[in-house]
Design goal:
Blueprint lengths: L3 E10 L18 E10 L2 E7 L9 E4 L4 E4 L1 E3 L11 H8 L4 H6 L4 H10 L2 H17 L2 E7 L6 H17 L3 E9 L10 H18 L5 E6 L6 H13 L3 E6 L7 H7 L4 E4 L5 H9 L3 E4 L1 H6 L7 H7 L2 E4 L13 H12 L3 H8 L1 H5 L18 E4 L7 H4 L6 E6 L2 E2 L1
Helix pairs in contact: 4-5, 5-6, 6-7, 9-11, 12-13
Bound molecules: N-(iminomethyl)-L-glutamic acid and fe (iii) ion.
Length: 410
């Protein structure tokens, strides 16, 4: 295949070669090349440099004047496989119903579980496929997808098999996380031990045998799983090689952070509710502190303290949390705008958090998350824009012209 060459790019953004999380005050630095060109061979970035060094070589040659080229977004926390939407709860919340009242009406995660268990694998696959197409046009090139709406052996395995099929068929890079511990099914509300045994003895061995997941997750929260229960589940998962990526401190601080760190978690996600001490601890935590501002926005909750985390040295990462209950959108462009507007992250910080740090939070940073030679040609080409900051500034506008995945425009 002939090389694809793009010249006169006003800014090639995030050209870092180093791998590993970008932390603390380093987040404000976004290595970039002004007035650049890029050469792509097959699915790989073959050459990048300033235009002064450009020597014409054979290949498809396009001008990309006034456009910014970015690495595609790496969305490291989603629940993209689900059956049906939950806008009736959205209306109930507008009318003032509490979370407990909505749950009493059969809403929440259990509502999604009922719908998921009634759906076929094909229905789930087709709906998820459409969502993947939608987010890829919005610039997402790699994505983590969790189970967690099955909450039964068959339901969880069905979800994970759908994710596995998406992995095989989609051009996007997908990682899979087992979240059987999303909530307790009604029949186990008074018998936590029994459901945890189901996870450990009936779900995990099949997941391991069929290679259905890369990671394990638990929703550690009052009324859901305690830090102790999370530890039991994650220790069982680790025996099968599943590293934890955890939902902690969304509503309460109940010891999930300390437990997650001692379990050697890859990422600790949500973090809306943090004590000063926990901010300090996350500053030293080697994994990702993943913030999901569109979920806080949708639930009308205070935003996670991104500035305090950055000041403490944390590896702040941004993701969409795409799910039908708390973030029915997988639009990372909006997540980046929210991060800048509501959490006072600089555009450079937000872009690092949604690209290289997202890649690290899925352990795919060798191939994704920045524009450097040898990595996959997964690129966002913007419409003509005056500056990088213009992207989060003009929130709600779609400024993406084209998205390239594995060297091909989608
Ligand atoms: O990440 N917090 C737990 N789980 C999801 C929302 C689940 C739902 O309401 O369906 C989240 O926000
Ligand atoms: Fe989530």
């Amino acid at each position: 295949m002939a090389a694809k060459i793009f010249t006169g790019i006003s800014l090639l953004a995030n050209t870092r070669e180093t791998s590993g999380f970008v932390r603390g005050n380093q987040l404000a630095t976004l290595p970039s090349i002004k007035n650049a060109y890029i050469i792509i061979e097959n699915d790989t970035i073959a050459e990048i440099d300033v235009m002064e060094n450009f020597r014409f070589s054979k290949g498809d040659f396009s001008m990309a004047d006034d456009t910014i080229v970015l690495p595609t977004w790496c969305d490291s926390h989603t629940h993209l496989v689900f059956a049906g939407s939950r806008e009736e709860e959205f209306i109930d919340k507008i009318k003032g119903l509490s979370y407990a009242q909505i749950a009493a009406k059969g809403g929440g995660i259990l509502n999604s579980a009922k719908k998921l268990n009634a759906a076929s694998e094909d229905q789930l696959f087709n709906a998820a496929w459409k969502r993947l197409e939608e987010v890829s046009k919005l610039g997402t090139g790699a994505i983590e997808i969790k189970s967690g709406y099955g909450l039964s052996v068959e339901g969880e395995l069905k979800m994970l098999r759908v994710i596995k099929k998406l992995k095989e068929k989609s051009p996007l890079k997908i990682t899979s996380t087992f979240l059987g511990a999303h909530t307790f099914p009604i029949e186990y509300k008074e018998n936590h031990r029994k459901y945890i045994e189901l996870i450990i003895h009936d779900m995990l061995p099949v997941i391991a045998r069929e290679k259905l997941a890369d990671y394990i997750d638990v929703f550690c929260e009052n009324g859901f799983f305690s830090a102790h229960e999370m530890r039991t589940i994650c220790e069982a998962g680790k025996k099968y090689g599943l590293k934890p990526k955890l939902h902690v401190n969304q509503l309460n601080s109940i010891g999930g952070i300390e437990a997650g760190i001692s379990l050697d978690a890859l990422s600790l996600d949500h973090l809306e509710t943090l004590t000063e001490n926990e901010v300090e601890i996350l500053g030293k935590f080697k994994g990702a502190s993943t913030l999901l501002p569109s979920a806080a926005f949708f639930l009308r909750m205070p935003m996670p303290p991104a500035r305090n985390l950055i000041n403490a040295g944390a590896a702040v990462t941004l993701a969409s949390d795409f799910n039908p209950g708390s973030s029915p959108s997988g639009n990372i462009n909006f997540v980046i705008s929210l991060a800048c507007i509501q959490m006072k992250m600089l555009p450079e910080e937000a872009i690092n958090a949604a690209t290289i740090n997202g890649a690290c939070a899925m352990e795919i940073e060798q191939d994704y998350g920045s524009i450097s030679v040898g990595k996959k040609a997964n690129l966002i080409f913007t419409k003509p824009v005056p500056s990088l900051a213009y992207l989060p500034y003009s929130f709600g506008s779609n400024l993406i012209d084209k998205v390239m995945i594995n060297g091909t425009f989608i």
